[in-house]
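[Meeting: bench + compute handoff]

Bench side (C.D.) handed over the final construct sequence. Compute side (W.E.) agreed to return the predicted structure before the next meeting so the bench team could plan truncations. Sequence as handed over:
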Amino acid sequence: MADIHIISKSKVQLPTSDFPPPGSTIELSFFDARISQFSFMQTVFLYPNATASPFSFNSFKSSLSLALLHFHPFVGDLTYLASSDDVAIVCSKDSGVIAIEAESDFDIQRLSNDITLDVEAFQQLVPIITSNDQLPMPVLSVQFTSFSGGGIAVGIASHHAVMDGRGLWQFIDCWAKTCHDGAVPSGLSPVHDRAVIAIPHKEEMKKRILKFFAPNLPNLPKVNKPSSDPNPDHIQSTRFLTVHLSSVQLLKQRIVGEATVPISTPPTTFEALAAQFWIAVARAKGLTSEDITPTLLTMPMDCRALLDPPIITTYTGNCVRSIFVESNGTSLMASDGLSNTRAKIAEAISIAKKKPIGGTNMNDPAQDIMRSFKGLKVHIAGSPRFVAYEADFGWGKPHLHVRVPNLKFDGVYMNVGREEGTVQLTVVLQGGMDEFVRAFEEGFQP
């Protein structure tokens, strides 16, 4: 049986004990507080044609140390401050990122090319930061795995309460370029200070949200893990789909052609894929045109450019709100279902842009919908603009990028695909995967 062997564990620290602004203690924002109960984002890059040298791991660590100079909150711990009943990122002279060196006899070629994710194998390629649900806990940990038949994997575990997708990709890009070039890229200007979010009553909002999502600090609530139920309808599976932008164009043409009223704004790639994904999941879960039971779509929206004043794009903390869209089988399965579903998604995005703080306040009606909703919930994460395949640590671009699922949900993670002009969809479903793939691919037929 294939396995992982840990060679070493070491702590990568900053080359200086002086922490740049905002200093050694970084308070969370209300955007961060919403995600305080979530587990870690788990990211893996596979380089099947890379060859590890005796110096590869040292280069891996030294470049990490240099990159962390510009991302110093990532070396800290997410910590409960009893005196203020608050949570903050706390850095000290002893802070550091645990770096694991491992070797494996997994078949990296199989892992790189299978359309179905071997979750058990990939979870071993990502470090386990902590086994408990209590603060303090580290923000970041990394793993370097070499394979007996050749090839390298880079695994990154990062706490979502400290960074959103854009913040994480900034860090990965900096670290990969530093490892590749031997020097930190010029022009870096990541911003970590939550003070840039200039929203009235933001501290009150944060405390209220934190108290709702994590009422028993320093203990965090248990996350919703994938089911171990042997029933095939309950088993969580993950599959990769690659969609060419030419196929997305067919979807957009269908949306326009189905519309019963003129479309004022052309459908975006995200809207078209989200609509088709939702319809396909609904079909896979057995919804019919006679089914009026509500189903809910949740999706993220970056708020950096929408706040007043806007936040610089290099801000690394969470600045994402959730958008909720409700529909039912009758609407989704109608002859104009794709166009109608896209219209609902576009309208929800338009409304959210005008009120970017909505969906973050616990008093917002949308949060009540999410908390009380009992029907089919479908989640979308990532973005078809996330450039996941640019992470070249010196071994070329990765053959596969994976966001390893660690929560129980039905949804998809989107990012730019490996091939030019494509979008990669990492689809996660609790049963019904084959039915979903058939329904999803049917939507791209002319």
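W.E. noted at the follow-up: The first helix runs from residue 30 to 33. C.D. will use this when planning the next construct.
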